[in-house]
Amino acid sequence: MKPNYKEPKFNAPHRVSPQQRQELESQIDKLLKANIVKPVVSKFAAPAFLVKKKEIGSGLISFSSILHKELNDRVECDQYPLPRTADLFRALEGSKYFSSLDLNSGYFQISVEEKDQYKLAFTSALGLLTFTRLPQGFKNSSAIFQRELNKSFSHILYKSIIIYIDDLVSYGSNFDQAIINLRVAFEIIDKTNFSLKTKKCNFFLR
């Protein structure tokens, strides 16, 4: 947190229709059962709202940048850099086979330290809850996630895999090498307990 930060203001839950309330409760219940959120006592309280999700036509719990401003304004900015596009493409030069790997609910695969969880609290029809996993809408989420993945894949980064936040590409100059490189990536994913959204992964593209 920034030095001498001001206490956050309380934000009441948004007014929602009965249908929206039912959907919101359903989404929160799923997060509770997955231990992604939990009840909390906190001075922070960002209103939760529904955002339509194209792939399933339903909603998800999220924060808008304005409503989450209470926390983002009080937190020091994590300056960990995202990779430059030019560096990503340069790493792929000479490769002929590519496998794109999409991490399942990427940010949610990173745990938030218990001492910091109260800062991510949000209000809803089900009361005051907080995230135990890294959420979208927090200004440092991308930097934290990129750092964690770069650390996990450090010995093969820019050698056989490139990473941009939750999108990974394993590559090789020929088919046999591409298989070997992908196997190494899978071993790291398994060891670090990351999981993939298989329906959004593509293998050995040319």
Structure description:
This is Reverse transcriptase domain-containing protein. Residues 1-206 form the Reverse transcriptase domain. InterPro entries: DNA/RNA_pol_sf (IPR043502), Rev_trsase/Diguanyl_cyclase (IPR043128), RNA-dir_DNA_polymerase (IPR053134), RT_dom (IPR000477). The chain is α+β, with helices and mostly antiparallel strands and 206 residues long. 28% of the residues lie in helices and 21% in strands. The longest helix is centred in the C-terminal third of the chain and has 17 residues, at 175-191. It is elongated, with a radius of gyration of 19 Å. The mean pLDDT is 87.
Can you give keywords for this protein?
206 residues; alpha+beta; four-stranded mixed sheet; four-stranded antiparallel sheet; 5 helices
Quickly describe the structure.
The protein is of the alpha+beta class and 206 residues long. The protein contains five helices and ten strands, in the order αββββααβββαββαβ.
Mean pLDDT reading:
87
Task: Report the biggest beta sheet as strand number plus sense, adding barrel if it closes.
Answer: 4 strands, mixed
Question: What spatial form do the alpha-carbon principal axes imply?
Answer: elongated
**Order of secondary-structure elements:** HEEEEHHEEEHEEHE
Termini Cα gap: 46 Å
Organism: Macrosiphum euphorbiae (potato aphid)
Protein name: Reverse transcriptase domain-containing protein
Domain Reverse transcriptase: 1-206
